[in-house]
Amino acid sequence: MKIHTRTFDAFTITTDKSKLDINVIHRYLSGESYWSKDIPIERIQKSIENALCFGVYHNDQQIGYAKVVSDFSTMAYLGDVFILESYRGQGLSKQLMETIMSHPELQNLRRWILLTADAHELYKKYGWQPIASPEKWMEIHQPDIFRKL
Length: 149
Prior knowledge:
The protein is of the alpha+beta class. The protein has one domain (about 5-149): Gcn5-related N-acetyltransferase (GNAT) (Aminopeptidase, 3-Layer(aba) Sandwich), CATH 3.40.630. Helices cover about 25% and strands about 25% of the residues. The protein has a 6-stranded mixed beta sheet with strand order 1-2-3-4-5-6, with helices on both faces. Strand 4 and strand 5 (about 75-85) form a beta hairpin. The termini are far apart. The mean pLDDT is about 95.
């Protein structure tokens, strides 16, 4: 898949996986996020291999991340979205969402899904809504799986 890069001010968002700093991603997801506590670095590496990843950089230092898991035809799951705390409040999450939602391979999908505990207002700006028929959805959820590994 073609690498897409967007630069603004001293910031860059790119799908170039070679630029990803696995240690920054692991430190945030395993230690600071509420959704991936204790995730092993090997799991993150595997998820990167199997997803469309967006790295956010200040100069060349990684400060944010998101991944999309998709068939690039009908559906996509957006996950692991973060901007490091010291860079929040600068509109970077909006820039990241604009970059993701405008990616050429992610256009005209029938369904996008994500889970969030606290960023509903951000996602609403890009057309996301609460699930219309939650009674149709099912899941297997194992929130402590990484602690058990």
